Amino acid sequence: MVDIIVCVKRVPDTSEAEVIIKDDKRAIKDADLTFDINEWDNYAIEEAILKKEALGGKVTVIGVGGEEVNEVLRRCLAKGADEAIRLTDPAFDGSDGYAIAKILSAAIKDLQYDFVFTGAQAGDDSYGVTGQMLAEILGIPHATMVTKVDINNGTARIRRELEGGLEEVDEINKPAVFCIQTGLNEPRYVSIMGIRKVSKKEIPVKAAADIGISADEVGEVGSMVKLEEFSIPPAGELAEMIEGTPDEAAGKLAAILKEKGAF
User: Fold this and answer.
1) Is the dihedral of CA 99, 101, 105, 107 positive or negative?
2) Measured between alpha carbons, how far is 148 from 63 in angstroms, rounded to an integer?
3) Domain 2-217 carries which CATH code?
4) pLDDT in tens, 194-213
5) Annotated domain spans of the chain
6) The pTM is what?
């Protein structure tokens, strides 16, 4: 038996959409954007469900945000998660990765769990810090960029991705936090019928007071990083095509590199 908590995030899909920054420059206009579960979190929830199916136990998903987060939580329930919790409070607005980790830890500390899974990073802000900070606050070990998880008698043998194509194998005792990398499984398809079956399932909502955290610990005031503004990267110069014979092209390239300070 293994009890796993999975932290999930609802993010916009901006891969093929025009990104328009709001007038206050602190957010993007999302009215016309499509939202879904964060890609890394999708692998995390799949891995948790696979472990439950193999070993028995329970999977609980937790999300931070407004009522719109229920959409992602219900998708996780339709996949096979057992319970979902939404953490919502005006005090949470403006929280960075550190403040989010404090919010999650406050909700998780009193729950029964063997392992906590998070995505390795978030697809909207590209932060990759919440899982590690969550583990530190909970006072338990963690591993990042995890590409394989084998659980046996309360111990997890994990494989994690390192730089330069290297991998590392570790054995970590429960409880622990694992930040899941993409590619370690094949996330299952969620059918419309599956979503309908969980459409009426109650999702408990907890505010700051419910999880025992004060307003000055979260939001912008409780964050280490404050978002000042978004900006669109300036358009770069067009590529320069170097023509001529190989010797001529090599000479021109060397001159350009010298001009740019490469040597």
Assistant:
1) positive
2) 24
3) 3.40.50.620
4) 889 999 899 999 999 999 99
5) 2-217
6) 0.86
